[in-house]
Amino acid sequence: MNVRKTTLGLAAGAALVFSLTSATDSERYFEIAKNLDIFATLFKEVNTYYVDEVPPSKLVKTGIDAMLKSLDPYTNYIPEDDIEDFRTMTTGQYGGIGAIVVKRSGKTVVQTAYEGFPAQKAGLLPGDEILSINGVTVEKKNNSDISKLLKGQANSTVKLMVTRYGQEQPIEVNITRDKIQVDNVPYFGMITNDIGYLQLSGFTVDASREVRNAVTKLKEQGAKKIVFDLRDNPGGLLNEAVNISNLFVDKGLDIVSTKGKVTEWNKTYKALDAPLDTQIPMAVITSGRSASASEIVAGVIQDYDRAVVVGERTFGKGLVQATRPLSYNSQLKVTTAKYYIPSGRCIQEIDYSHRAEDGTLGKVPDSLRTAFKTRAGRLVYDGGGVAPDVEVKDKEVADITRVLLQKNYLFDFATRYRAEHQSIPPARDFKLSDAEYQKFTQWVQAKDISYSTPAEKALASLTAQTKEEKHYEDVKAELDAIRKKVTTNKANDLTRFKPEIRELLEQEIVSRYYFQKGQIEATFNDDPNILAAVQLLNDQPRYATLLKPGGKAASAMKSAGTPGKQ
Q: What is the C-alpha to C-alpha distance for residues 475 and 166, in angstroms, rounded to an integer?
């Protein structure tokens, strides 16, 4: 073998690869420069010759937003004006009054006043309609404008003029703003004598400290088992997900790995601290809106067989974002990596790098999902969120209930109820009497509660089809009879779906007296996910079996759970 020829051949090959790489980079940089030049000259021409005045910042932001939207929903441009809102999302802190205010049918209505915060302390009530803020009329203001008017430096005062049910004249409410810290754990408490419950709603700064505190307090109150509720949690800070996972698994174990284009940023996050508790039985509840950091926690706990996951398949967001500074105090939030949980799976469901010709995106089909194993050997799958071990589907609400919610009739009746009743029994004990429910039905029947049931839609479609095929006169009598029957049944929907409607109405009323914590407690006896979790924790043989290979967990099936909602 000619060593010299071989060496020269390798050198020539390396030079060719280098040359090709350099050429590829040069071509890429040229393409970038070329297209930026086209954009700049195009914008200049539009700005000069377009028939109407063009706001430069608005037009450029529209272009940037459209460009980033073609990548994924999580890569965003954050202009200087929105930086404060972005900080609020990541820290959970802002200067304000501690209330949720929404526009509704042209009115500015207080939806929630959080317990212990300035708005509630000053006497602002859910259902109050705000007329002005510091003398500024809000009738034509949008939600963003109103939020900016309400927020401000701690210890500054904001004056609201509001109208309230039961009061003839507008009243003035003066609120001293404060530093608002949104709790990541809005509630923890005991469901039964030995089962504790905690709800985690976000992953901002200090989320792990709040979870540690909640679990510690629950154990002090006698908790021997825990229900950990991650439903509808959209995620947040990666390091908080790592720290929360660390509370329940041994020190030194892998929590999550990130892998992206910039290999220097790839990292494996480990449990660095001694755990809080690796033994207490837990049921983790998830929903189709549990995403990102909440999926890391649920996935880590599942991969280490630390707890049983109950509920729905999670959203399926396995992407990591980082913020990069831009000029003029703006920022870019950009997707930099995918994350992988301890079993080795990535739970990302949608492939944003491959779009169909029409721009639509596809999910990973069941046939392409790869099987992985938990530490105990249980089968789990990638490409579609974290599937629960015990599947519990959310209850589908009736059409009448949906209308009552969408039109805020439950909310408005609760406002009336609060004005007419000074107090109610504790949250878990409060029940609306039949007479009170009858009063609600009489009140709501004077409202617009029109809607089309599936039966009515099907009947309308059938009627149109028979007319088109010239058979309508032959079946008109039968269709009319069915229509009359359906209409009669629909008129009784307030009675037929009384248990469902009453349950939601009770929760809304309870929130007016016992705030968010009371509203959560009011669900303990009715929530199918909580009931399933409690039943499981009280059945330790079944709990133990589910954490072993072949335990018939839903997560061992590719199609388990409800697909992530997009």
A: 53
> Under DSSP, is residue 160 helix (H, G, I), strand (E, B) or coil?
strand
How far is residue 412's CA from residue 407's CA, in Å, rounded to a whole number? 9
At position 367, the amino acid (one-letter code) is S
Residue with tokens 């109610």: 424
How far apart CA 523 and CA 245 sit, in angstroms, is 27
CB 372 within 8 A of CB 380: yes
Q: Would you state the structure tokens that stand for residue 508, as one six-digit string? A: 């809304």
Query: Residue 526 — φ and ψ, nearest 5°?
Result: -125, -25
Helix 409-420, helix 434-444: angle, nearest 10: 130
**Integer CA distances (angstroms), 379 to 291, 533, 538, 539, 554, in order:** 21, 21, 25, 22, 10
Tokens standing for 358? Answer: 């029409």
Q: Are 244 and 205 spatial neighbours (Cβ–Cβ below 8 Å)? A: no
CA pair distance 88, 70, nearest whole angstrom: 26
- Report the catalytic residues: 292, 303, 317
Contact between 124 and 160 under an 8 Å Cβ cutoff? The reply is: yes
Q: Rounded CA gap, 64 and 297, in Å?
A: 33
> Tokens 């900016």 belong to which residue?
148
What is residue 536's three-state secondary structure? helix
pTM for the structure as a whole: 0.86
Cα 271 from Cα 561, distance rounded (Å): 29
Cα angle value 336/338/343 (rounded, 5°):
155
- If you search the block for the tokens 């009770």, which residue do you land on? 506
Distance from C-alpha of 332 to C-alpha of 325, rounded to nearest angstrom: 6
**What pLDDT digit, counting tens, does each position of 44-99 carry?**
999 899 999 888 888 999 999 999 999 999 999 999 888 877 877 778 778 899 99
